[in-house]
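quick q for whoever's on today - can somebody do inverse folding on this one?? i tried earlier but teh output was garbage lol. C-alpha cells:
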C-alpha cells in the first residue's frame, strides 16, 4: 500500500516515520481515559473513552482502534466479536481519528 492509498496517515499504513503509530494513538487514548483533561475543548473525548474503557476494558478498545486505523474497518463493524455496542465503536473510532490527527499535527511543528 502506498501513502496515497492509506485511509489514515498512520505509520503502519503510510510507512512514513513522521506519522504517529497505532501504538502512539492507543497509548494516548488510554492515558487520557485514565486521567481526563479538565477545561480542554476536547475533554469530552477523554470522558467518553473513560466510560468505554470502564465498560469494555482497555484490550477491547485497543482492538477497535487497531481495526479502524490499520485494518480499515468501519467504526461500527470494528466491534465485531468484541461484545461492544456499535455506537461505542463509533465513539472509539472518532476519538482515535482525532487523536491521530493531533499527534500528526504535533509532529509537523
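ok took a stab at it. sequence:
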Amino acid at each position: 500500500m502506498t501513502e496515497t492509498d492509506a485511509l489514515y496517515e498512520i505509520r503502519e499504513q503510510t510507512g512514513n516515520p513522521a506519522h504517529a503509530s497505532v501504538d502512539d494513538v492507543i497509548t494516548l487514548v488510554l492515558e487520557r481515559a485514565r486521567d481526563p483533561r479538565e477545561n480542554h475543548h476536547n475533554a469530552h473525548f477523554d470522558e467518553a473513552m473513560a466510560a468505554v474503557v470502564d465498560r469494555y476494558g482497555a484490550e477491547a478498545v485497543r482492538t477497535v482502534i487497531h481495526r479502524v486505523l490499520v485494518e480499515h474497518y468501519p467504526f461500527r463493524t470494528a466491534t465485531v466479536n468484541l461484545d461492544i455496542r456499535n455506537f461505542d465503536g463509533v465513539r472509539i473510532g472518532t476519538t482515535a481519528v482525532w487523536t491521530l490527527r493531533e499527534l500528526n499535527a504535533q509532529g509537523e511543528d
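fwiw The two ends are 27 Å apart (CA to CA). also The chain is about 60% helix and 0% strand. so keep that in mind when u check it
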